[in-house]
């Protein structure tokens, strides 16, 4: 099954192939975009179990919220996408039944139209994912001690558990689809505003994949989809002198923080503390126009450990920033710049019983796991140093290496039960990135 290391290897190979196709390229463009849409899906096996009990099946379909990056070399298309998918919630006997999934996909395709305002593209995607299926009732604990004394308020089943860290993505996922887009001019700017629509079919090719406690949930990763979106695109036709760029980078690094106060509460209630610092993998999109910088960061901080006998736990935080800044210095392929970011972050603690029965007994006796969650607003200042290495003889794109250092500041009141998490969310960090910049 693909892992994060496999995806990184394929990511580099795809863009190396793209460089070979682009030696005599006359029409490059890079695009960063966000999309939203719907996918049709039916939890067939789970619904059959509900029907056998005389219960109403879960509603079909799930929503897709995604971000992506795409580069066109002549008629050859390369890119990646990340999707967060959310099912329609159902309620049974005071429990909310819900499912979510995440996909990380690498895209390769071919443009069926010449480079211009209108584009029509056929593409195929390959990647890995994460699945979360849960049945939880309201957590009535007033403080952390009450919660840890009786944490069980439902069950949580996960495959490719990225709450431990992004490198735990698993499975093989594919998409086949078409993309239509049209460019709208931005007054006074060389960049264009791109509107797009995507349609096609997602599927998990292996029937035995995504099995959780006796039921296969492969339908959650499948179905016909339709998505619409917007983005920023840099077509070559708008640039007499190339003074703008849009890069895509893989991010990893260090966050110099530990959940000390939360660990104290865990140990006071007979559980093992988390050790070390959170691991971190993510994506950085960084655009530049005449020295001004803009972009987005998306990364996933994860911690995992053994809580007690037959129990494990995770502490996870997903963070997404919109960034703006300025490049202070540039000489040949070396540059220094600064960014300010404002964004969203959550904090999630899961206490999991590792020994659960299979369905349908698990549905009848669901109280095994505990879950705490909070979310809010974050900000950060950041400085970076980058160096680009031309990757082809025609200098079609650079292989970009950079180091980013900064400090994250919570602007919201982060708490898990009664435990303040401000100290954990507030931290200095050092990120290392590698990517491509056309």
What sort of overall outline do the alpha carbons produce when their principal axes are compared? Answer: globular
Beta-strand percent range: over 45%
Q: Number of DSSP helices? A: 6
Provide the succession of SSEs: HEHEEEEEHEEEEEEEHEEEEHEEEEHE
On the 0 to 100 scale, the average pLDDT is 90
**Which structural class is indicated by helix and strand composition?**
mainly beta
Beta-strand segment tally:
22
Summarize the amount of helix as a percent range: 10-25%
Terminal CA distance: 31 Å
Q: How much is the radius of gyration in Å? A: 23 Å
Low-confidence stretches: 7-11, 15-25
As for the number of domains, it is 1
Biggest sheet: strands, sense, closure?
A: 8 strands, antiparallel, barrel
The main sheet orders its strands as 1-2-3-5-6-8-9-12
Notable features of this structure?
438 residues, mainly beta, eight-stranded antiparallel β-barrel, 6 helices, 11% helix, globular, signal
Could you characterize the architecture of this molecule?
The protein is mainly β and 438 residues long. The chain has one domain (4-437). 11% of the residues lie in helices and 58% in strands. It has 6 helices and 22 strands. It has an 8-stranded antiparallel β-barrel. An 8-stranded antiparallel beta barrel has the order 13-14-15-16-17-18-19-22. The protein has a two-stranded antiparallel ribbon with strand order 10-11. A hairpin with a 2-residue loop joins strand 16 and strand 17. The longest helix has 18 residues, at 4-21. The relative contact order is 0.15. Residues 1-22 form the signal peptide. Keywords: Signal.
């Amino acid at each position: 099954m693909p892992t994060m290391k496999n995806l990184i290897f394929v990511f580099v190979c795809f863009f190396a192939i793209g460089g070979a196709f682009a030696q005599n390229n006359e029409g490059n463009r890079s695009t960063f975009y966000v999309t939203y849409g719907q996918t049709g899906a039916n939890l067939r096996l789970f619904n059959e179990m509900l029907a056998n009990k005389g219960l109403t099946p879960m509603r079909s379909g799930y929503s897709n919220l995604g971000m992506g990056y795409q580069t066109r070399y002549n008629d050859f298309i390369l890119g990646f996408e990340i999707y967060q998918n959310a099912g329609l919630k159902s309620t049974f006997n005071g429990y909310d039944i819900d499912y979510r999934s995440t996909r990380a996909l690498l895209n390769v395709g071919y443009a069926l139209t010449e480079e211009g305002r209108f584009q029509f593209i056929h593409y195929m995607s390959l990647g890995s994912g994460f699945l979360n299926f849960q049945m939880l009732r309201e957590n009535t604990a007033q403080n952390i001690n009450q919660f840890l004394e009786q944490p069980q308020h439902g069950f949580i089943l996960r495959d490719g558990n990225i709450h431990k860290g992004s490198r735990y993505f698993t499975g093989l996922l594919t998409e086949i689809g078409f993309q239509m887009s049209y460019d709208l001019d931005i007054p006074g700017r060389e960049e264009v505003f791109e509107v797009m629509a995507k349609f096609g079919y997602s599927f998990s090719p292996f029937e035995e994949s995504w099995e959780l406690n006796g039921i296969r949930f492969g339908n959650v990763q499948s179905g016909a989809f339709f998505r619409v979106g917007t983005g920023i695109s840099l077509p070559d036709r708008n640039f007499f002198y190339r003074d703008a760029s849009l890069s895509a980078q893989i991010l990893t690094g260090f966050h110099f923080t530990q959940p000390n106060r939360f660990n104290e509460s865990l140990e006071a209630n007979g559980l093992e503390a988390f050790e070390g610092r959170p691991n971190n993998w993510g994506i950085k999109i960084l655009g530049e126009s005449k020295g001004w910088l803009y972009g987005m960061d998306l990364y996933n901080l994860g911690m995992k450990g053994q809580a007690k006998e037959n129990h494990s736990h995770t502490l996870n935080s997903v963070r997404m920033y919109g960034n703006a800044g300025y490049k202070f210095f540039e000489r040949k392929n070396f540059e220094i710049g600064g960014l300010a970011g404002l964004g969203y972050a959550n904090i999630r603690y899961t206490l999991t019983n590792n020994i659960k029965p299979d369905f349908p007994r698990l549905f009848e006796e669901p109280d095994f796991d505990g879950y705490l969650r909070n979310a809010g607003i974050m900000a950060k200042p950041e400085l970076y140093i980058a160096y680009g290495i031309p990757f082809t003889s025609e200098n079609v794109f650079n292989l970009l290496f950079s180091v980013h250092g900064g400090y994250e500041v919570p602007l919201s009141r982060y708490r898990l039960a009664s435990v303040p998490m401000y100290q954990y969310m507030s931290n200095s960090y050092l990120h290392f990135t590698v990517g491509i910049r056309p």
